[in-house]
Structures are given as structure tokens and as C-alpha cells.
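Exam prep: given the inputs below (a chain plus S-adenosylmethionine), describe the expected output before reading on.
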Amino acid sequence: MAQSVLCISCPNGISEAIGEALRQAGTTGIWEVSQREWRAFFNGEDGEIAAAVLRLNPEAVLRWETHEPVDWVARYQASLRALPVGRRFVILPSPDMENPWPGRIPLQLVPGMAFGTGEHFTTASCLRALETLPQVPPSVFDLGCGTGILSAAAWKLGARRVLACDVDPEACAVSRETARVNATPFEIVEGSADGVDERFSCIFANILAQTLVELMPVIRKCMLTGGALIGSGILVELGEEVLNAASLQGLRLIQRRTDGEWWTFLWRTS
Ligand SMILES: C[S@@+](CC[C@H](N)C(=O)[O-])C[C@H]1O[C@@H](n2cnc3c(N)ncnc32)[C@H](O)[C@@H]1O
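Solution:
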């Protein structure tokens, strides 16, 4: 069925009262194009809706349009592309997508609100840093796991003790699903590094710079001798602060990567 769209434009801004009136009139969705221009979707035109908007704002300019229905899910699915990352990995944005690069290790994403689709520099550069380690780390701690994509990658490379944690329960739920669809049974706990009493050969910490600085002493305690820390999510202007915090813990900087906005650092215990 075609959709009726009420195009509303108010030079003096659109108030929340209009939003409420549209909802009461049964809108199926509102697109806030700007503070002065909205589109409200309905199953048919109704002059009373326009009249109600005009009563609330006599300066409103209104126009009805008819749109053919769009299958947004199909459009979204068609827009999804496999994403090669580094030399070894390819990220498949939906679990049923075939791997167009059979020579690369597939990492399947699951739908969810958690951060970590691989498109962001901070995630991709963690995967690149992982690839540069001289050997596959036997044990990995993914601090702030988001979707769990880094944990799945570490497991698929050959790590057999992988612990992921996140303070966000939604991220933990998405990570559990990531572990399932990738057949990478890493452990997921809700919480942060201070609840972890274990040492690892590699730690990912793609969290914000300030969190990294605060957690640096705790992270250091979770590193095995000779272990690696891959720290990311660090805005360039905060890089020095994080480097100082790592240096205070006796960590040696091995690599640095940037896209001009973010840093990813790789340290080792000395
Ligand atoms: C930028 S995302 C990174 C996700 C994923 N590791 C990646 O590289 O794509 C940061 C994640 O860290 C989590 N986080 C933030 N502060 C944290 C903390 N103190 N302890 C554990 N997780 C934390 C957030 O909930 C978020 O999911």
C-alpha cells in the first residue's frame, strides 16, 4: 500500500506539541529532517491532521506526498558488503553472507547496537596489530569487547583462552551471539578489568583514552611477562597522556598507528 507523507515546514521551528499531535493521529513514523522540517508517515491522507498541525503553528507550510512503499530491510541487506581487514581477515556483516575472499579468515557480525563492525579505524587497527605479533597469543583478554569481534578474531587465529568483558550488558549479549555464529566459544563476562584475576599474553583495550589511563595499573597486572597490550580508541590529542600512563607501568611502546584522528598503540612488558 502506498504511504501518505505529510511534509511539514515551520520557519520558526517545530515544537514537540506537533510531534504529540502527529502521534495521536496515528503516524507510523516521523523523520526529523531538521528542526524546521519534518516528514510524518500515515496510511492515508487526512485533512484533520493538517488542520491540527496548523492550529498548533499557523505559520506551518504543509504538503501531502504519496510514496511507494520501500522494503527498508531488503534495501539494507543489499547494501551490506564484506569488508577485508588487514592481511588475514574479512568481516561479513550478516551471518548468512558467503565469504567472497576464501583465503581470508571470516568474522561474522550479528545485528545489535554494540560498537565493533570493523569499519571503524580503532577496531580494524587492533586486528592489524594482532596480525603483527610474532606468534599467536595463547591467551587473550578483550577489555571492552563491544560486539566481541576482536575475541572471535583471536580465537580464529588460534588463541584458546579468550576472555571478553564489557560494562554494557547489550554488548555482552551481542558478543555471546558473535561467539555462537563464529563457533568461537570465548568467555564473556559483564564488568571490567578490575574483576579479573588472571594474566594474558595479549590484551585488547579499545576503550576511551581516559578509561585506558585509569585502568592502566589494573591492565598491567593482567599482562604476562613478555605480553602485549593493544590499546586503541585514543584521540590523537590524548595520545601523550596514555603513553605516559603506560610508561609509568613499565610498558615499552612497539608500534603506533593513526588515521589522523585516533591512535592505536602496541606495547610489551619490558
Ligand atoms: C570502542 S568500543 C570497542 C569495541 C570492540 N572491542 C572493538 O574494538 O570494536 C568500547 C567498548 O568498551 C566498553 N567499555 C567502556 N568502558 C569500559 C570499562 N571500564 N570496562 C569494560 N568495558 C568498557 C564499552 O561499553 C564499549 O562496548
